[in-house]
Amino acid sequence: MHVIVVGAGQVGSSIAASLADTHDVVVIDRDGERVDALTYDIDVLAIEGDGADLETLREANVGEADLLIASTDDDETNVVVCGTAKVESEAFTIARVKRPQYLATWEHAVDAGNEAFGVDFMVCSDLLAAQTIVEVMGVPTAEDVKSFGDGLCRMAEFKVPAGSAVAEQTVSEADRFPGLTFAAIIRGEEVIVPRGETLIQPEDDLVVIGRPEEVEAFGADLAPDQTNPEEIVIFGGSEIGYQTARLFCEQGLCPRLVEQDETRARWLAEQLPEATVMHHDATDQEFLERENIGSADVVVAALDTDQGNLLATLLAKRLGADRAAAVVDNGQFTDLFETVGVDVAISPRRVTAEEITRFTRTNYAETVSIIEDDRAEILELEVSADSAVVGERVRDLAVELPQSVVIGSITRDGELLIPRGDTEIRAGDHLVVFVEADDVDAVTEAL
């Protein structure tokens, strides 16, 4: 597949790197230094130029492109790039935008059966980041969450705390949840497919797949002192902060939202009547103590700077808040934030890159979740009537598939099944499968 990526920032570079091994990738950027760096870092053709210029797109062979991804930091540029590409290309176009207003307009046009902006698929970074925050913080102790099978199945990644109920237990001992599958243990740089005798160690990242209520119960078992959030505080009325508050309100929760700008605070109060909007500085410790922020179940920092978000979350944690999530503009800092005490660091650039990368892989899966920076994937695959695996039992299939594969769940006729060794695969089954990245092709071919 011939792919053109316009914009070589964090999002574009990440997408290009994930596609370069299996596709013919061309990257366009105005910044010559970025272009030079990309040429040396990954196996792509990098062009210095304006991706909204038809001549530059022609240089990238846009007429033969199968896919064009516009991922610059400017919404309008990305929309124009897609429209320009459509002038002489049938490429499928993906535009990254920050403002949900563009997404709403695009979705309205698509629902009406019309084409909008020459964009075939649109990803909104701010809304996606807010959705990620709400989904992850809604499951106690989870670091990552993804739904499959029309919501019947959920994947979650948990950090195993020292002294927790499952630390130093074998998988067999920890397997007290009939509606749950232990899919993987990530220990440092190692991805371990758990067996019954595998020992779960403190600080392991544990990936589980199963019924949503069982996933939540497992999270509660890991940290009994943490429950589903009720008291939520959001620092910053940025677009991400606003969207996060709106989504929590839709769930029947009433967050408190702290915004320093008086005009913005007034607007937020008008838009979010269920929320409590406070006009103040979220990094003022006296204010945080006075407002009893330490009693919060969840604190989300969505201020304008990474430094402000780090300070606000650490202050809230110091005052006693149970869990803290911070928006991190620079995706390279997410590990640093979590190392110094932030429970979950969300990079809008990173989640956008992963969402676009997931979309490029839907030719072989209905839903894809990328684990640990593309070291593994969780795929939702439908078994066709002519598939060779129809009629096979899970225990026999496990022998034929790569060792990294774990079948986490099966959705059949609107019901979720947790597969056991004697479970038979049927045509029309939707399998949720954990697989290391190197084995994805082999697994999709087999299933």
* CATH topology annotation of the largest domain: Rossmann fold
Q: What is the C-alpha radius of gyration, as a whole number of Å?
A: 23 Å
Mean pLDDT: 90
Strand content: 25-35%
Quote the distance from N terminus to C terminus.
Answer: 22 Å
In total, the number of strands is: 22
**How does CATH name the architecture of the largest domain?**
3-Layer(aba) Sandwich
Q: Give the overall form.
A: globular
Query: Could you name the CATH class of the largest domain?
Result: Alpha Beta
Q: Number of domains in the coordinates?
A: 3
Given as residue ranges, the uncertain stretches (5+ residues, pLDDT < 50) are none
Q: Into which percent range does the helicity of residues fall? A: 25-40%
Category by helix and strand content: alpha/beta
SS field, number of helical segments: 16
Q: Main beta sheet, described?
A: 6 strands, parallel
CATH homologous superfamily placement of the largest domain: NAD(P)-binding Rossmann-like Domain
Cross-sheet strand order for the largest sheet: 3-2-1-4-5-6
Describe the structure.
The chain is of the alpha/beta class. It folds into 3 domains: 2-119, NAD(P)-binding Rossmann-like Domain (Rossmann fold); 228-351, Rossmann fold (3-Layer(aba) Sandwich); 354-446, Regulator of K+ conductance, C-terminal domain (Alpha-Beta Plaits), CATH 3.30.70.1450. Helices cover 34% and strands 25% of the residues. It has 16 helices and 22 strands. α4 (75-85) links the parallel β4 and β5 (92-97). α1 (10-19) packs parallel to α14 (348-360), α6 (125-137) packs across α9 (239-250) and α6 crosses α14. The mean pLDDT is 90.
